[in-house]
Write a structure and sequence with these properties.
single chain; about 230 residues; eight-stranded antiparallel beta sheet; about 0% helix
Length: about 230
């Protein structure tokens, strides 16, 4: 048998003690094992298993057979319409499929998803389907800021934040780390400037002082990164 010429897989951004910033709009889409599905890996533990965070793009009329996720699946529909046998989910839908649940994902129209796999805390079994366009927003901690809570379990929190133009927040610190995907607009801090499509992950104990010139809409996770 001829030896395989395929290079061994190297984990992607799995050292969560390191700060990571990725402009997803500057990355190349990579083919997945499924025809018509493309992805941009942001962090990945193994080639086709383990913990994964990625952007996933479905071409129109892409359909899969039923499968399950051993430790859960978290999805935010960035654009288009995602679907499975339980419903259709337009852009702005937040989905949680707990560990060992099964579904047959598809998209007739095409869609782009922000996806996290195999990262559910032990005991978190709540399925969720939230249409963020029809959910009740809450005032944030700072003037003009709005917050939409999506999920919480233990120290793990997932929210959408909206900051108005000209906002400057006090210094922020994150005992359990911070992960941000910018859905719209832009913000900056002492480390750099981040536009729509940027993904940031900072380790436990990190801090920064964010601000925005023109306003922004952020998908934010905190408290979920352990050292």
């Amino acid at each position: 048998m001829m030896p395989s010429s395929e290079a061994p897989f190297e984990p992607i951004n799995m050292n969560r003690d390191k700060r990571v910033v990725i402009n997803t709009q500057a990355q190349h889409w990579m083919a997945s094992p499924a025809t018509g599905v493309w992805r941009i890996p942001l962090e990945r533990e193994a080639k086709e298993s383990g913990e994964v965070t990625s952007l996933v793009r479905y071409e129109p009329n892409t359909h899969f057979s039923s499968h399950y996720h051993p430790n859960g699946e978290e999805i935010f529909v960035v654009s288009g319409i995602f679907q499975d046998e339980f419903g259709h989910y337009p852009a702005g839908t937040y989905i949680r499929n707990p560990a060992k649940t099964r579904h047959a994902p598809a998209s007739d129209s095409g869609c782009t998803l922000y996806v996290k796999l195999n990262m559910f805390p032990e005991g978190d079994r709540e399925p969720l389907r939230i249409d963020t366009h029809n959910a009740r927003w809450q005032p944030g901690h700072y003037p003009g800021q709005s917050v939409l809570p999506l999920h919480g379990y233990g120290s793990d929190r997932t929210v959408i934040m909206q900051w108005p133009a000209g906002s400057t927040l006090p210094p922020q610190s994150y005992d359990g780390g911070l992960e941000v995907y910018i859905l719209a607009g832009s913000f900056y801090d002492e480390w750099g400037e981040y536009d729509e499509g940027f993904w940031l992950r900072t380790p436990p104990g990190s801090s920064h002082q964010p601000a925005t010139k023109d306003g922004c809409l952020l998908l934010v996770k905190t408290g979920h990164i352990t050292q």
